[in-house]
# Entry
Amino acid sequence: MAKKKAVFVEPAEFELQVLGTLWEHGPGTVRHVMERLSDGKERAYTSVLSVMQVMQKKGLLEVAEERDGLAHIFKPLVSREQVAVPLLRGLVTKIFGGRTRTALQHLLDADSIDQAEIKEMRKLLDELEARKKK
# Structure
């Protein structure tokens, strides 16, 4: 039987925050996620739990076998790259007509980039160039 191709489920904005928290801090309980959410908004425990349960049904999260006391520990089933690449590709296509250079130029113009970041970007570009030559 042929293997089913995984379908990308685009996370909603709040789901992206939950994923970002779990990617950054590792698996955690609903309470752990609530304490680390990037927007700082107050939310009811049950609201966050409901969203995380929906994310589990979507295949974005799973409940780990271990627990923290009575609380379930959630962990992401998708990597940052699996989510970021299609989202970024879509933005570049929709907003910049598919021109990556133009999108990157806007980001660089709008952000203060320090020397260390510039050095890292040069390294990434050098690695990309080396892979393209192969």
User: Anything to note?
Assistant: The helical segments are 13-25, 30-36, 45-58, 80-96, 100-110, 115-133. Residues 4 and 119 are 41 Å apart (CA to CA).
